[in-house]
Structures are given as C-alpha cells and as structure tokens.
Amino acid sequence: MAAVTVQGVTKQFGTQIVLSDVSLELNAGETVGLIGANGSGKTTLFRLIAREFEPDLGTITWAKSVQIGHLRQEHEFLPSRTLHEEVGSAFAELLGMESKLHDLSDRIAANHDDPSLPDLLSAYDKLNDRFIHAGGHTFEARLDQILSGLGFSKADHTKSMSTLSGGQRCRASLAKVLLEDKPLLLLDEPTNHLDIDAVRWLEKFLDGHRGGAVVISHDRYLLDRLCDRIIEVAHRKVTSYPGNYTNYAATKAIRLLTEQREFQKDKAFIAKERAYIAKHLAGQRTRQAQGRRTRLERRLEAGEFVTKRTAGQRSTKLSFANTASTESTVLRCDELAMSFDEHILFSDLTFQVSGGERFAITGPNGTGKTTLLRILMGELPSTAGSVELTPKLRVGYYAQQVEHLDPQRTVVDEIRAVRSEFSEQDARSYLGRFLFSGNDVFKTLGTLSGGEVSRVRLASLILTAPDVLVLDEPTNHLDIPSREVLEEALSEFGGTIIVVSHDRYFLDRIAQRILVISPTSHAIYAGNYSYYVEQLERQRSASKVKPASRKTRKSKKSSPAPAKSRPSPYDALSIEELEKLVMEREVELAALQERFGDSQLCKDADALAELHEELEAVTAELALVDAAWQERAETQ
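The structure corresponding to this sequence follows.
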C-alpha cells in the first residue's frame, strides 16, 4: 500500500529546475535509500513529501493514516531547554495526558463524597488506559535508551542546548525524531556526526521500526543492510532500483553498459544514414534519399535513438605513480601511550605496518584515532612508547583540518602549483578524474563546498607521488560518486596506506588489517570491516553467560562492597588472563548496549528494567577487572 504517491512533480527555484516530471511511490513498511550527488535535489524531494514545499507542477498524495517524522539538515531548538527537555518534547502529547491524569487525581481526592465522583473515576480510567497504551510508563526509559544509543552520557541530559556542539545538536534532533515514532520517517543524512558504534545502534533501531523509512545517506554499508529499494536522483529525474545498494550498483553498471552500446550502435547507424542522404540527395536517388531523411528525422524526434552519451560515463579512473615501497616494515609502534592530564586515550599500543599494506584504524569518537595519526606524523609527542617511521620514504598526509589553501587560487591553478610542468589542459584532464568538469575547474577554492575542497586536496596529494599515504577520514564531505572514485584510486595505489575512517563500506573495500580502538582497550583484526564484525559476533556468542551466572552477578551488585583487606577474586589471574577477561566483558557490554536498539523492547517496562540492571552489573564487573589489570600492569 502506497503511503505517499508522487505524480509528475516539477519543482524549480527561480530559473533553476531542480526536479522535472518526477513520479514515485513510497510504500508502507518499506525502507528506501535516496541517493544522488550533492545538490541533485534529494533534500528538495524530502521537503515536498513532508509538505514543506508545494510542487510547481504535478501532485503528491498521502494516505489518510500517514504521519511523517522528518529529520532535516537544519535543526531547530529552544536554547533555554536542556537536552532532556528538548528531546523529551517529542512526548508532548504524553506529557499533556500525564498532566491531565494528575489533575483528575487531585479532583477525585477532593470530591470523594461528590455525586460527580463516578464520572471523574470513569474519565480517569479511560485516560489512564490511553496513557498506558501510548507508552506512558516507558517513555523516560525510551528517552534514556535512544540518547545513550546516540552517544550521549547521563551528564549530557542536563546540559543546555545552547552549550552543545553542532554535532550534538544534530544527534539531539535525530533522537527527537526517533522518539516521535511516526509511521514514515524521512531521515536526511542521519549518520552525520555519529561514530561507528552509534551508526550500528541506529541500524538496529531502524531495522526494528514498524513503519517505513526513506534515508538520504552516503553510508553505503547502512544502505546495504537496511534498504529494500534504492531511488537515485540525477539530472532532475528519479530512477528506482530494487534491492540494497550493492544490487543497485551492479544493476546500474549493467544498464550503463547497455546504454553505452546502444549509443555507439545508434551513432554509427545515424552517421551511415546521413552519409547516404548527403551523397544521393542531388543525384539519381534523390527520392530515396529524401524518404530516408524523412524517416530518420521522424525517428529522431520520437526519441528512438540514444543520441547522448549516458551521464556518468565520463572517466573516473585514477592512477597513481609507481610508488610501491620495497621496505619490509614501513612503521613500527612499541608500547605507545597517550593521555591528557588524567584522561588516557590509549596505552601499550604495539603494531607494525609492512610495505604495500592497507592498515586501517577505526573506533568510537574520542578514542584518540586522529591523535594517533598526529603522533605517527611527528606532530605530537606521545606520553610513552616509541614510533619509528622509515625516514627515506615520502609520506603524503591528508589531515582533517584544511591548511595551506589559498582561497583566491582556482582549482586548476592549485593542481599546477603542485606540478608546474602541467599545461592548463593537462590539469583539466587530470581534474576530470576527480569529477571536476567544465567551468568547475576555474572556481576559486574559497567558493567550493566541503566535498569539492576534499577532492582538490586528494588530487593534489596524489600528484606528490608518496610512498606512504596517511589519511584521516578521507571520505568525510564526499558524496557516493566521489567516494567510489577515491576507492578505485586507492585500490590501484602501489604504496602503503594508513587510514583512519568510520566509513564501513570504504573499510571493507580498502582495509587488509584493522586496528579497533575502544575507550578501554584495542585489538587488531587481520581482515576488513566485515571480518571484524564476524569475529565480534563470534566473541559475543562465546562469551554469553548463562542466566544463573547473571543472577550471581546481580546479587554481587546488591551486596555490600568487599573490604579492601579481603582478597579479590582476580588476584590469582595472570595479567594476560585479566586482559582477556577485560575484552570479554567489553564485548558483553557492547552486546547489551546493542539490545537497547530493539524498538519493541522499549514497550516492555519489565524487560527494559532487567536489561538496565544487567548492564549495570556487567559495567561494575568490567570496572573491577579493569582496575585489577591496571594494578597488575603497574607492578610488572
């Protein structure tokens, strides 16, 4: 059943036509990925569906029962509210019902001998039933669950919205939309400002959402895991593809190849016909030539031929210089540690990177990934340990912070500043591989979008022909076509890559080994991101504890803390055993936190309370084991 039907819609702003004759259906219970290059009209389509814009032509029809929750790119909030108050305003109806229940309760208490008492009791019972059915006794637990899943701590709840960062406000807006629990969700870049753990939580939450969702996202891994259908917005039109993102990519590649072959065939046929017409129009076969010209023109007007090269067929293939390192070990880190005052980012970090290897670093925000890269590059001293980077190798470093770019310089001049021997045509041809075409190459750097600046920086970095590429979140600000261009280039790069990224699809295509840094530990996995997830799931299965054991932990939690003089149950364990136990409890803790993403759980107050208790027990045990490990490590 169609929740929203868009029929022949055109929308323009001034003289710019953004969408032209667009038709599509969004079905109830379906998860759709909406993709397209930046500026292609995805957000405009969302705002039309959300009734924020009126179409200039065409119609949009909504099913009577449809209610829409819309996450916008622009976020509105009351600065005076706390985070809890702002996000909790999603429950305005429940809060109103709760207030009326309190009022009825007071009136019942004040009129217990009044003849109107039966009517008051009846009104209270009816309203209370509605309140319970709408989740009145679980909405606080749901609020806590969603804020926690999106990376907020308990201490953040009382912070004023005016003091939160832009990224925190984005996450607060997402939390509010999820709590409204509308049947149709329109989510515009919901994974912006989410770290890798929060994105996984969001996936699980959306997977359990009872209604439909349309998601604008550059996160192809999310689009793969969630979507029943992909809708591409390009050149003012929309095209629907069944299945997830990977199926879309394969189907589109076949379609483009077919259209390219049709273009070549039709081009040859038209040229042959026109040559015949030109040769015989004034000769003995004039009548035949005129007839063939008439038929050709009729067929051209009817659109029977593919007369334009399919958009997207331009070359996006990049090539690096031959920079393969012959060094067996490019980088070595021994017992590396970094802390700021009392805050420890990481410790005892030991690994090495071999020549030609693709080594990735990932993990939640705030675990020191960028700091680690800065230590590797010599920009920051470590608290402890050592770093050895083979000195004779040329290193290309792509940092998150943009530096040394002249805002008045054009894109083409920026490339020629790196390679002075390039002619303007050489630079333009090279930039075409990075999706810059036409007059785009003459834009000044100060007028570019974030994604365009990123592409210019990557293009310049590649021209330096480094032996080692050190990349800090290189896919940030890039749309999907730009990410795929970068991935194709890196797959052909002959040197060594060390990259920090939260883009799971990118990690799957590039990484050979992954260092995962968590707030309390780190681990290296010999594979890509999917391999890491597979190993994580195996660890969780192996570390599952029987219910009886969980009850034992709960009873320990409720009993008085042991005196310091009493022996610890961890005293007999070696430091290796303690470290293994820390990792097992972290895996168990992550599994419990993921269970909060189950949208059905929030409707069961008892199950939610039990999960909270279980989470607290495992957290307490992890703290004890970690303390024992820290104490043992200091004495070694």
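The chain has 20 helices and 18 strands.
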